[in-house]
DNA sequence: TACAAGAGTGAACAGTGTTCACTTTCTGAA
DNA sequence: TTCAGAAAGTGAACACTGTTCACTCTTGTA
């Protein structure tokens, strides 16, 4: 299992790694600019001065290559969220920053983010059609980012800011969904944040913060103080 | 402009329309089951007993055909949301139902919904890189569904339930993003609603309602009654 | 130096969307 | 009823795609 022990790293190994890196970085360059559809094996081969079939000596398939790009992106995303959640600021600011950072990072690399959620069905490893293994999920950077959200919810509850009756996991998922939704809409509709021209011009950043604010507000202790998670209800 | 005046509809027109419909319905059948990747022109041609090139006499391109499927889906979606928003129920129930209906309808036809938001950039018609024309946007079913959300927010404000300081358009967009996010995650991660096995089993429907609840809660008048849209802030 | 493992290649396969010259069918007017 | 012209439908081809495979060439080791 000691795959990267320097004592066993031969020149051939380093050469191979360098070629592999050149493929990845060319792929990253093309992918960031034009996305999955602009990235063809033949084009990639052209860019790195190899034949198309050579690439298959390094990656089993195009999908496998792209998976690597996605995973690297998610690691960046995780690092950023982690930074936001552990910054030295008041809790609610940190909570909002988590959501805003998530959306912002996604929008910065739209193709990466979109691709990560593009394949229906096997987006996460399944085990026999049943619920996913939490262990397995937590080991991916996607899962770890989600873990940060869960901790944030529980922290908010301990601080008596968030509704204590909320299930932290469910609340975190809800927060994730809210963040994901804005990220996707901003990516797929470039002018989403200023859809209505009558409205005064607004930067995407401002709308992201507005949205983060609303998402976090949904978790606050309800106005009536009952804390049972149900809405006031029967009005109107 | 009287394109469908019966008096001018010849047998040839009806025949043409029938073939066109057969293409669409075959496409719908395949697409609903296998999505965009399973839908090839040659396969479609096989299913309706025509040659592949014949299809190009009815549709300019594969994308054009798929656009028609998407538009039909969005009309269904709009109708359902409209129904939820105008049902004879207390306001907050209607508000939550709008979100839940949106997500539920999307999840029912995952490929349609996913496809509608799959293409980066030109998801909505642009005019010269500037903000979108609101007029143009409102004529699409996607835009109309959004209009329903805006009305709902303003109604909530008039009823003194929602925070009056919120911009209704922005709040509606936020609500849209929240709904969209859950829809996408449920579609792309089939077990999203029960990611954590330790958690007691939960139907997707229940999680949708939980999420709808949180989304709507975010719009309520803040606990402190200040109504200026800012969060309590400096705690922790 | 010989040999085996690995790196790299070009041609081919089975797909894809799309086009175009071509034939067949149909329709409306002389 | 005939006949020109339009429309409907076709098959072959083009330019792509991801992927495979037999093959050569290079490299490291015994």
Report on the structure:
The structure is a homodimer of 236-residue chains. Mean pLDDT of chain A is 84; it is low at 1-6, 122-135 and 225-236. Chain A has 236 residues and is an all-alpha fold. In chain A, helix 9 runs antiparallel to helix 10. The first copy, chain A, starts with 10 loop residues before the first helix and ends in a 19-residue tail after the last helix. The first copy, chain A, contains 10 helices and no strands. At the A-B interface, helix 5, helix 6, helix 9 and helix 10 of A face helix 5, helix 6, helix 9 and helix 10 of B. Chain A binds a DNA duplex (30 and 30 nucleotides) through helix 1 and helix 3.
What's the short version?
2 copies of one chain form a homodimer. Chain A is an all-alpha fold and about 240 residues long.
Topology:
The structure is a homodimer of 236-residue chains.
Chain A: H1 11-38, H2 41-48, H3 52-55, H4 62-86, H5 91-108, H6 110-116, H7 134-139, H8 141-158, H9 168-188, H10 204-217
Helix pairs in contact in A: 1-2, 1-4, 1-6, 4-5, 4-6, 4-8, 5-8, 5-9, 5-10, 6-9, 8-9, 9-10
Chain A binds a DNA duplex (30 and 30 nucleotides) through helix 1 and helix 3.
